[in-house]
Amino acid sequence: MSQPEAPRKFEVTCSSCNLREMCLPGGVCLEDLERVENIVYARRRIKRGETLFNAGDEFKSVYAIRSGFFKTSLLDGEGREQVTGFSMGGELLGMEGVGLGHHNGTAIALEDSEVCVMPFALIEEMARELPALQRHLHAVMAREIVRDHGVMMLLGSMRAEQRLAAFLTNLSKRFVRRGYSASDFHLRMTRDEIGSYLGLKLETVSRLFSQFQKDGVIEVEQKHVRILDSAGLEKILATR
């Protein structure tokens, strides 16, 4: 698997970034924002298929996705990949390393992407001086915990069709937060990767996509998805 290019130092301004409110500086007032911008010491471009970090790598930085899409994954005892999450613009990667001192999984770009590199030592130092940043850092970490619990609920208590409905609904909401369409989007991940994340076999994922299309809930053309009946997806989720 190819490795990304080395980070390059150049002017990075959080204040002009349209994803700022979802990112780490989002909780900081404008007068402190100039100081917080110093946390971002470089941007790094990651091509599709390249790794941002690998499981076991020393934890030094948190990465804010400026553009693109990533998957995070682990290898099980038999060397098979288990997808643990999908991340898009405005979200942070690498937070799981805060308590471990190393990265627990591998992050791979699903399309050409760009990240802001934020050394965690700098974040901690600045958070001590700026209470608003510290509060927002804790909020971001709490959000990651809630997301992990959500995945556990997804895998532990939902039927197969509910898992896929929840996955599509979640993606829709995340796209909306970034100013994109709630009902028309392109899946960056493969059916196999979706199955790995949802704890379903590839055949099951393909069958469910076909079933949802047959029922008029979605329209699928390869990786392009249109949600035709969002209430229908919610109904699948609510079915006991």
Using brief descriptors, characterize the structure shown.
240 residues, alpha+beta, four-stranded antiparallel β-sheet
Protein described:
- The chain has 240 residues and is an alpha+beta fold.
- The chain has 8 helices and 11 strands.
- It has helices at residues 30-36, 97-100, 120-129, 131-157, 160-177, 191-198, 202-214, 230-238; strands at 42-46, 51-53, 61-67, 69-75, 81-88, 92-93, 106-109, 113-119, 184-186, 218-221, 224-227.
- A 4-stranded antiparallel sheet has the order 1-8-3-6. Strands 2-7-4-5 form a 4-stranded antiparallel sheet. It has a 3-stranded antiparallel sheet with strand order 9-11-10.
- The longest helix is centred in the middle third of the chain and has 27 residues, at 131-157.
- The N and C termini lie far apart (43 Å).
Shape: globular
What is the spatial order of strands in the main beta sheet?
1-8-3-6
Query: Secondary-structure element order, as H and E?
Result: HEEEEEEHEEHHHEHHEEH
Question: Pairing-aware structural class of the strands and helices?
Answer: alpha+beta
The total strand number stands at 11
Sheet-strand content, in percent, reads 15-25%
- Tally the helices: what do you get? 8
- Average pLDDT, all residues: 85
Helix content: 40-55%
Unreliable stretches, pLDDT < 50, 5 or more residues? none
End-to-end Cα distance? 43 Å
How much is the radius of gyration in Å? Answer: 19 Å
Taking the sheet with the most strands, its summary is: 4 strands, antiparallel
